[in-house]
Amino acid sequence: MTDFARPGDSVVEPLNRPKIVRLHPFGLDGARTGPISLATAVLLLAAWFLVTHYRLVPPLFLPTPQEVATQFLAIVEDGYAGATLWEHVSASLFRIFSAAVIAASLGIPLGLAMGLNRWAKGVFDTPIEFYWPLPPLAYLPLMIIWLGIGEVSKIVLLTLAMFAPVCLSAQAGVRALPIERVNAALSLGAGRWQLFRAIVLPSALPEILTGLRIGIGVGWSTLVAAELIAATRGIGFMIMSASHFLATDVVFVGIGIIAAFAFAFSYGMRLLEAWLVPWKGKS
Amino acid sequence: MLQVRNASVFFSARDGRVVHALDRASLDIDANSIVVALGASGCGKSTLLNAIAGFLPLSEGSITLDGQPVGSPGADRGVVFQKDTLLPWSSVADNVALGLRFAGVPARERRERAEELLGLVGLESFADAFPHELSGGMRQRVGIARALATDPKILLMDEPFGALDSLTREQMQELLIDVWARTGKRIFFITHSIEEALFLGTTVVVMSPRPGRIVARFDLDFVRRFAAERDVRAILSAPEFAELYDEIRSLVHRPHAETDTPRKVLQ
Ligand SMILES: Nc1ncnc2c1ncn2[C@@H]1O[C@H](COP(=O)(O)OP(=O)(O)O)[C@@H](O)[C@H]1O
Ligand SMILES: [Mg+2]
């Protein structure tokens, strides 16, 4: 092999393509799971249909897929509890996004500082390690007592839930920085700020993006708790309110909407990662 | 001139004992010379280089570059590491120009200088490639170009070709000699290969472990001969080469004296 070979140099003509082989894999090794997942989804739906069709479960516990679909269309058309579906969705999106922006703009710098500075680490480690394993429902009453029942307490609750994963991953990003890379930059004349800007930050970026993805996921799963606080709008509110009237079909609609948004955001974050850190996992 | 005087380094090992990694090493690196430190692993070669680069303070002794004591790392000492330290998110040209960016050189000038240096190491057509698209040898060439970009007074190289296959390694040695002949940079080069040391060094210092010491020093002219005649075979088959090879081999493999024998300094 010559030193000058570029990737793609020895591509074979497609016409006389030889039999392609590869090493026997172990574990998953990138095997395709898409069709299997799709089949599973279809099976689950079919099972749901059959179980409700033959009344194996009382409709109060499990509505039929048709009922859920009808209810969804009704909510799209008429709204729920005096607000349109879009008003519910946008109320939830606004809370999640405000919280994500606050959590990122506090968590990323603080996490980086904690990875770099003894004092930052020493001061903030204890409170963060103390609060972050707590379930948000546990400090929800405190949020209400301290901050009232307006938007602030909801957004602060979501922010607290998202902050820890973002902050911890930024720290992990700094810790994973190889010392040789730092030394190389120093011997190229990097100043402190240049070192941070050109080396530390981009090196930590993959971890930071992972932390954001996890943080937003945690945000969605905390949404219902946040909207327990005297809300009149929001998907979480819709679910809680429907459950009081045993409107199981509306609960299902709400769950479906949250799942769809959470999935879409997670997917969007992956695209963002592929675009911002294309080098991740290479060399 | 780079002067190392009675440099000693003590580390604390994990069990609390003290490791004497470098013992009173003295070394001069003059203009236009390649000083090669040769020795088995653990004899303090990297320790010496790290101290010169400014990554590590000395326990005792001093290091001066053109009369000035060396302190923290800086662009006057270019470093090439064994493990490549290119930035995976930057193109080859941007990697080469990193030091120029730190120095505030405008983008156009950086690009020109990077292309010039890539030409020097035979990678002119790879300016816009990314590090993960290059082979190990090519990445080390980018590393050399990057270290040269800030026009350092000395190039420090810690087993830069140690991870390469032997064929690529030979190409890289010749490339390094070309770069040296053209730029006239002085070079401090670390290796554990006797042949590499003999081929590259205008001076070879042999080191031995526990404590890390310079035990012998040889002044050679094979590299100048190669730069002038470009005949590898003539050099490798020269009787002096074989003689020195054997002499150094016996030094390197000598069961190192536990007793504090006075240092044997040849030539
Ligand atoms: N940071 C360190 N802490 C403790 N001991 C070290 C450290 N770095 C190197 N040493 C020890 O110092 C000695 C010399 O190391 P080094 O300079 O890396 O040798 P070489 O590069 O010649 O292989 C070795 O015994 C090594 O274990
Ligand atoms: Mg070493």
UniProtKB/TrEMBL annotation, chain A:
GO terms for cellular component: plasma membrane. Its main location: membrane. This is ABC transporter permease subunit. It is found in: Cell membrane. PANTHER family: ALKANE SULFONATE ABC TRANSPORTER-RELATED, MEMBRANE SUBUNIT, TAURINE TRANSPORT SYSTEM PERMEASE PROTEIN TAUC. It comes from Azospirillum lipoferum. It holds the Pfam family BPD_transp_1. The keyword Membrane applies. The chain crosses the membrane at residues 36-56, 93-116, 128-149, 155-174, 220-239, 246-269.
TrEMBL record, chain B:
Keywords: ATP-binding, Cell inner membrane, Cell membrane, Membrane, Nucleotide-binding, Translocase, Transport. PROSITE patterns: ABC_TRANSPORTER_1, ABC_TRANSPORTER_2. Residues 4-234 form the ABC transporter domain. SMART domains: AAA (SM00382). It holds the Pfam family ABC_tran. The keyword Translocase applies. GO terms for molecular function: ATP binding; ATP hydrolysis activity. It comes from the Bacteria. Transmembrane segments: none annotated. InterPro entries: AAA+_ATPase (IPR003593), ABC_transporter-like_ATP-bd (IPR003439), ABC_transporter-like_CS (IPR017871), ABC_transporter_ATP-bind (IPR050166), P-loop_NTPase (IPR027417). Belongs to the ABC transporter superfamily. This is ABC transporter ATP-binding protein. It comes from Azospirillum lipoferum.
